[in-house]
């Protein structure tokens, strides 16, 4: 049997745009390291190439409170949880986008793992994809909501692989966040990464991310090799 393709997902978005006739906002969510950014970029490219629609992708990371603000609020260990975001700013942003207004978005620097003093200007587009671990907390603001799923052990392994790659890159390209990890013995490093998953990413997944799955119009499930296992179209509850 052939693996499912993304045609059904693209059809949902194209139909929503045809009905609305103005900017369509797509929400994409799923656990840490499940592939939200790559998936969103792929959808944006396919839409642009197949339909000529203007598409932009914005990550919710830009709406995180700064590390200093999180520390002041006692939320340094809750980064990525709903309370670590400026929810009022996200709501205003999504309202403006849905009204086809040009907007600006704060920049989150993955090199420093913090908000920096820059913004990205987002012009009026046909489709805006808003992706993030807790994106569907704002499902009322989306025309189409998509949930990405992989089995928890698979996501954990992808998180370890991604973190290891970033740590290795910091050995030749200085990163203030990863530099302290570059000389940590491998077994201790893996223990630290697993600890981060257990203490932060897994609770966030179970308590806040997975409960939004019923709110999605489509659920895309991945295999361990990043192939699509299934695509389920559903009526959001």
UniProtKB/TrEMBL annotation:
GO biological process, one term: coenzyme A biosynthetic process
Residue span, Phosphoribulokinase/uridine kinase domain: 25-167
Pfam families cross-referenced by the UniProt entry: PRK
Ranges in a coiled coil: none
Stored InterPro entries: P-loop_NTPase, PRK/URK
Molecular functions (GO terms): ATP binding; kinase activity
Protein name: Unannotated protein
């Amino acid at each position: 049997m052939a693996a499912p393709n993304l045609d059904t997902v693209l059809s949902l978005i194209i139909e929503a745009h045809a009905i609305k006739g103005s900017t369509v906002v797509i929400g994409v969510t799923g656990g840490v390291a499940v592939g939200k950014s790559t998936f969103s970029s792929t959808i944006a490219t396919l839409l642009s190439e197949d339909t000529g629609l203007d598409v932009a992708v914005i990550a919710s990371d830009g709406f995180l409170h700064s590390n200093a603000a999180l520390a002041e609020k006692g939320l340094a260990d809750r980064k990525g949880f709903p309370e670590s975001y400026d929810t009022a700013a996200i709501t205003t942003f999504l309202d403006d986008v849905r009204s086809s207004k040009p907007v600006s978005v704060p920049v989150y620097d993955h090199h420093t793992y913090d908000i920096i003093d820059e913004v990205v200007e987002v012009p009026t587009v046909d489709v805006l994809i808003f992706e993030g671990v807790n994106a569907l907390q704002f499902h009322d603001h989306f025309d189409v909501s998509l949930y990405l799923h992989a089995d928890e052990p698979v996501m954990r392994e992808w998180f370890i692989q991604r973190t290891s790659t970033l740590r290795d890159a910091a050995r030749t390209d200085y990163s203030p966040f990863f530099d302290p990890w570059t000389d940590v013995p491998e077994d201790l490093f893996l223990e630290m990464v697993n600890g981060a998953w257990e203490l932060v990413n897994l609770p966030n997944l179970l308590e806040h991310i997975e409960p939004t799955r019923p709110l999605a119009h489509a659920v895309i499930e991945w295999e361990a090799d990043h192939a699509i296992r299934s695509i389920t179209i559903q009526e959001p509850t």
